[in-house]
Amino acid sequence: MNYSASSQRYENMKYNRTGRSGLLLPAISLGLWHNFGGVDIFENGRSIIHRAFDAGITHFDLANNYGPPPGSAEENFGKILAHDLKIYRDELIISTKAGYYMWPGPYGDFGSRKYLISSLDQSLKRMGLDYVDIFYSHRPDPHTPMEETMMALDQVVRQGKALYVGVSSYSPEQTSQAADILGQLGTPCLIHQPRYSMLDRWVEDGLLDTLETLGIGSIAFSPLAQGVLTDRYLQGIPNDSRAGKPTGFLQPDQVTREKLEIVNKLNGIAHERGQSLAQMAIAWLLKDHRVTSVLIGASSVEQLNDNLKTLNNLSFSDDELRRIDEIIS
Ligand SMILES: NC(=O)c1ccc[n+]([C@@H]2O[C@H](COP(=O)([O-])OP(=O)(O)OC[C@H]3O[C@@H](n4cnc5c(N)ncnc54)[C@H](OP(=O)(O)O)[C@@H]3O)[C@@H](O)[C@H]2O)c1
Question: What is the pTM of this model?
């Protein structure tokens, strides 16, 4: 299959500025945590990436450990890049991360300079890239001095291995400290990647305010609560769903009756709005100007198409917002 990108690819996507930086990100970005690993069907992942780029999704998010097996999502993405997207490299924002367990011994986990720098070198090899656009500290490390982790991020930028850096799942206080150190080093903190959805609103408790004050962008991961905030589980747990698969991170016991009651009520409001629940869940995040991008996952082109239609209706009435709040508070 030869791929040539759609000439209309920039016609429907919305692009938002990332904090106070020069970088614009698509309102919807695609993550490769699930569905792109060695256990998955390669051609399915490839079709999803083609459709995403054709629809103006310029940002693809990876991490060293995505798979399974760990590293295989980067390898598969590298193949797709080399085969189909090479000539579009300057139209792509590719991110990767290090911070969770990747290899045995004391140097393959958390936030040391040793781990971050060698992990990024490995990621670049797996993807066949000279540089990534964004490199993240994937999680805070309670035992490594923040200075060391931030100096590693600063160094990869100076080496030309990353254009920008960010942090993921840092608390507001940790984010301020990280941004302060990076600022002193001369490499601004571009972006924070927190979990954020209608079912998990921790970022509203200080993080989004901190990011706005510091001029840092945000990209919300698991916006559909890994699929729970869609119609996927309304009739039980399908075998081919994340909760139904042995390799899925979502465990069946996390799909509780209480959550499904909430999801059913939200589904009613989404239908009144003429949207799918997935679309409403994404739009609900994008209503906040501090959210630069919503980082979705998808296991099929159909799901991606459904999610892309979110952009047709991003506004909420006060009454809808109040009713949604009553359901999820
Ligand atoms: N920084 C971090 O620590 C961290 C952690 C987690 C994720 N992330 C990033 O965030 C990205 C997205 O996370 P996520 O995959 O959990 O996001 P998500 O969008 O909350 O969940 C994606 C899953 O929801 C289901 N889905 C998506 N669209 C649907 C639709 N229209 N209708 C029905 N079901 C739909 C699919 O599940 P099925 O597979 O069941 O079809 C899909 O795999 C990841 O790929 C990764 O890049 C980062």
Answer: 0.98
